[in-house]
């Protein structure tokens, strides 16, 4: 590229290139007006500064991000991260998620009863013992468990030491209630889904329903499924209550889409849904059947079984 | 000792913005510059040596880029001179296989340049240089009226190619609108708003390079034929858009 020498001094010369740029260059014996090629041009210090500025800005931005992220991460790990889970396996089956400082972060439950209890209690700022006590107290008062029942408590933590620590605390505190508490240092065992016990449980509950509990009796106006129809005669005969409603050798009938196709007319005659009140035990107060479930989905989930095969927390009135 | 150190630093800080002071500083410290050059080339430099010119230029660069945080100015300047000379030698090394035209024949002491035929017309070249010099003198005088010196333009000249293109567009637009140039000469103010609108350029960019635009717009006015011819690429660049 050619440059015109615009100005010469002792220390430098000012040149103009063909693109119209003016640059400082070493005055290698130039004269004003001379056209030169290949001069020694001044290093552009602004480029270096810009490079340094970019590096500095990047480092500063990274430092800011780290400065914000580290306390956030510390706060999260200390307060919001779940370190252990304590599950109280009653009908409500409520799980407490506990942070590193022993505070309950949130309560969880897969059952409707559990969610109902969770709505009623306030765990804000409470530790695991207070929360466990409050859950058990609420379950007792609401009738999900009663005095003398056995409740299993499962502790699932990151380390066995942590689990032991929680276990020892719970063992000290929980026996204050009039219930038997078995504390297990393990995860909640998986529960096998069996049709038969569910039906049996439902049946027993219908018999022993407390006034505030929702009955699982279908209304006559609703489509009656075959499975439900088979339950009712067994419910009317207390001595056959433990027998399965559906024979083992017969396949479980699917829910018919049309109620007209439901076979077994004698059952309808013998035990129509509205005659459920007649099968109720005498000591129970009469209750209105206005809160009836719509279909089979409203059947209460099966609670964990005890070793002796009895359903836990069930109150069977004589 | 301490007052002398402070004196040089204060002089350097003045010279950063005042080119006359920078020239004086260079003149005052010429022995130092020569000594540093001599350390590098292992002989006493002559006034015509390129190494000495580069050393002076390095000293000037040191004045411009010095800050108190960098320590002693003279040490900093010595380092700058050394680095510049290393760079120069590295650049010159590329031409090591070539023979200089100024090499002399041992027998009759004639330089190689004298033995080859010269197609250039020295007279024409000198004439051209003189004409260019006159144009530059005129331009400098006219720029003075706008309160702008050639050094100002060199400092204010666009560095990035993109900025240079924007300025070229603005100059090209002004060239195609003589009324704008007339107004510019009459009012002695750069019509930034009109240029930004007409050339579809960022007003802020043009504002930053106002002094550079003064020089370029003056070159676009009558006269300055040689300089216009030299920067034809810029004007063509504007036309291509």
Strand order of the largest sheet of chain A: 7-6-5-8-9
* Biggest interface, residues from each chain: A-B, 34 and 49 residues
Mean model confidence by pLDDT of chain A: 68
Spans of chain A of 5+ residues with little confidence (pLDDT < 50)?
192-200, 214-247, 255-263, 265-286, 306-318
| Structure annotation, total helices of chain A | 8
State Rg of chain A. Answer: 39 Å
**Largest sheet of chain B at a glance?**
none
Biggest sheet architecture of chain A? 5 strands, mixed
> Strand-residue fraction of chain A?
15-25%
What is the overall shape of chain B? Answer: globular
Q: Can you tell me the number of structural domains of chain A?
A: 3
Distance between the termini of chain B: 61 Å
What letter string, H or E per element, gives the SSE order of chain B? HHHHHHHHHHHHHHH
Roughly what percent helix of chain A?
A: 25-40%
What's the rounded overall pLDDT mean of chain B? Answer: 83
Outline the structure in words.
The complex is a heterodimer of chains A (318) and B (241). Chain A has helices spanning 45-80, 112-120, 128-142, 160-173, 195-207, 226-236, 265-270, 276-279; strands spanning 2-8, 13-17, 22-25, 35-37, 84-89, 94-98, 104-109, 150-157, 180-184. Chain A is α+β, with helices and mostly antiparallel strands and 318 residues long. Chain A folds into three domains: 2-37, no CATH class; 84-184; 195-298, no CATH class. In chain A, the strands form two sheets. Chain A has a five-stranded mixed β-sheet. Chain A has a four-stranded antiparallel β-sheet with strand order 3-2-1-4, with no helix packed on it. In chain A, α3 packs across α4 (160-173) and α5 packs across α6 (226-236). Chain B has 15 helices and no strands. In chain B, α3 (30-41) packs across α4 and α4 (50-65) crosses α5. Chain B is globular and about 65 Å long. The mean pLDDT of chain B is 83.
